[in-house]
């Protein structure tokens, strides 16, 4: 199949496919007339790359999976290098989740403080205003009107 058809079937652009070729993730084969030629295996490579990207993997992180498929393995994640990338990604995700838990705790504590402050202000506003006049102090006649 030609580059346009592969791009359409993979749900991407021809520009992206050329970029993957530049990176060495997609083989660049040419037919007799000079056009790029692709196979179903290339479509599988692209599907593997896209799935991993959807999971948050960078393009370089997809390389071991692509190489595994290119080596003839039925799945891109059946090689040791692919498993190592999974392990690193899980460790990275665990660290992100731990950091998010910390931030959540901080935001929760700030919310509690903000509510307490709001409630204290509301309670203060409910109290009658304090009079500045001291009982028994004479008031001038023109000030009472």
Fold and architecture overview:
There is one protein chain. This protein is mostly helical and 145 residues long. It is built from five helices and no strands.
Strand and helix layout:
Elements: H1 3-10, H2 14-23, H3 40-54, H4 59-70, H5 80-126
Helix pairs in contact: 3-4
Question: Could you give a quick summary of the protein structure above?
Answer:
With 145 residues, the protein is an all-alpha fold. The chain is built from 5 helices and no strands.
Derived from helix and strand composition plus strand pairing, the structural class reads mainly alpha
Q: What shape does the CA trace take?
A: elongated
Count of DSSP strands: 0
- Percent helix, as a range, is 55-70%
Overall pLDDT level:
89
Strand content: under 5%
Helical stretch count? 5
Distance N terminus to C terminus? Answer: 96 Å
Question: How would a textbook summarize the main sheet?
Answer: none
Summarize the helix and strand pattern as letters: HHHHH
Low-confidence stretches: none
Radius of gyration: 34 Å
Keywords: DNA-binding, Transcription, Transcription regulation
GO molecular function, one term: DNA-binding transcription factor activity
Protein name: MerR family transcriptional regulator
Domain HTH merR-type: 1-68
């Amino acid at each position: 199949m030609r580059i346009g058809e592969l791009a359409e079937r993979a749900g991407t652009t021809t520009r992206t496919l050329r970029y993957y070729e530049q990176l060495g993730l997609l083989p660049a084969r040419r037919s007799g007339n000079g056009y790029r030629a692709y196979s179903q295996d290339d479509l599988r490579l692209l599907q593997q790359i896209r799935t991993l990207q959807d999971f948050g993997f960078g393009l370089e992180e997809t390389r071991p999976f692509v190489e595994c498929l290119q080596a003839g393995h039925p799945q891109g994640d059946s090689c040791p290098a692919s498993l190592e990338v999974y392990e690193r990604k899980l460790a990275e995700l665990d660290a992100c989740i731990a950091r998010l838990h910390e931030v959540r705790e901080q935001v929760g504590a700030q919310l509690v403080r903000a509510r307490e402050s709001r409630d204290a202000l509301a309670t203060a506003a409910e109290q009658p205003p304090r009079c500045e006049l001291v009982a028994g102090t004479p008031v001038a006649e023109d000030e009472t009107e």
